[in-house]
Amino acid sequence: MTKPNEQNNMPIIHPNAAGIDIGSKFHVVAVRSDKAMEPVRTFQSFTGDLHDMAKWLKSCEVTSIAMESTGIYWIPAFEILESYGFEVFLVNAREAKNVPGRKTDVNDAQWIQRLHQFGLLRASFRPDKQIAVLRAYIRQREGLIELRASHIQHMQKALMQMNLQLHHVVSDITGATGIKIIRAIIDGEHKPTLLAQYRDIRCKESIQTIEKALSGNYQEEHLFSFKQAVELFDYYTQKIHECDHRIEATLNLFGEDRQPPEKPLPEARHRTKQPNAPSFDVRSSLYQVLGLDLTQIHGVGPSLALKLLSECGTDILPKKLVDSARFVSSTAKKR
Question: With contact defined as beta carbons under 8 Å apart, do 62 and 31 qualify?
Fold first, then answer.
């Protein structure tokens, strides 16, 4: 039978542990009571105060720190503490609060410190610096794509207000045919017969059908809205290309300390360009980093493979996924 006082004899996993309750304006930091005269202190979230917090933790001989992943407020504190050489555990706030036995007279920082001291908190996945940088660029790119999509909807709305039913004759108004017609309209060309001449040879609809769809009721206010939507679409497209350059440069950094793969790049499984695909050769860059081509797996395109790398890193990609890529690549070469 367990004795009542056996809980006080739990093995200490992190003897020099600290806990931080993250906030938007200030952070509450707790260390062991025998490490400082004032074991619980409050620091503001300004950069200078974060450095003071790190120095105080150093003076308390702290080596391992646990903090809650509250919004995005934890990011500056995490990065600064990590730069000072601390082992920083980013934990889910729900896990810290769900551990039974919490006393009402113990504040959040002390509770986090106590749980971390006994090794009861599990650190969330945090990739290494290069992967974190890559992930930041890719997430920024995804946000820009969403913003650009809203302006495509504004373009469609303005077209419908002028009864220009372009979206009924092309699958994508920003595709080869659609974007040429849109730019011609912006430049002042409104004759259906001339606009229909911009039809791409891959377009399924005939020139006659496109002419009917582009016979509209042009109004100055709708043209104004349409022009602004197109300009905003172009602006976000430019910003997405800037992200592509950063992503490509970041991927090239992985190859500096890696040997180039001996095997040649397998033939592409996906021949058609995917929507919103990056403007550089993702397959070659990923192959240089991983030494295999994840896009050989059915359903995994270049964009998804890039997303997997940014979220999982090079070391913890699912083993079955990596094995599948190797198997598919070897099978394709035997044919």
Answer: yes
Contacts of residue 131, Cβ cutoff 8 Å, sequence gap at least 6: 309, 310, 313, 314
| Burial profile 235-270: b = 16 or more Cβ within 10 angstroms, e = fewer | ebbebbeebbebbbebbeebeeeeeeeeeeebeebb
CA–CA gap between residue 108 and residue 162 (Å, rounded): 59
Write out the two tokens for 175.
């595709």
Instruction: Give the mean model confidence (pLDDT) for residues 61-80.
Output: 92
Span 262-276, average pLDDT: 70
Which amino acid does the sequence have at 284? S
Nearest alpha-carbon partner for 64 in 45, 84, 36, 50: 84
Per-residue tokens: 189: 């060309």
Q: Which phi-psi region, left, alpha or beta, contains residue 31 (left: φ > 0; alpha: ψ -120 to 50)? A: beta
* CB 268, CB 286: distance < 8 Å: no
Is the Cβ–Cβ distance between 312 and 289 less than 8 Å?
A: no
- pTM score over 0.85: no
Q: Which residues contact 38 (CB under 8 A, 6 or more apart)?
A: none
More confident residue, 68 or 240: 240
CA atoms within 13 A on the CB side of 277: 15
Structure tokens at 88: 């920083």
pLDDT of residue 1: 39
φ, ψ of residue 49 in degrees (nearest 5): -70, -35
Tokens coding 1? 């039978």
Asked if 325 and 296 count as a contact pair (C-beta separation under 8 A), the reply is yes
Cα–Cα distance, 182 to 186 (Å, whole number): 6
Dihedral class, residue 218 (left if φ above 0, else alpha if ψ from -120 to 50, else beta): beta
**What are the backbone angles phi and psi of residue 185, rounded to the nearest 5°?**
-65, -40
Q: Kindly report the CA angle at 143 between 138 and 146, in degrees rounded to 5?
A: 130
How much is the average pLDDT of 27-50? 95
CB 108 within 8 A of CB 53: no
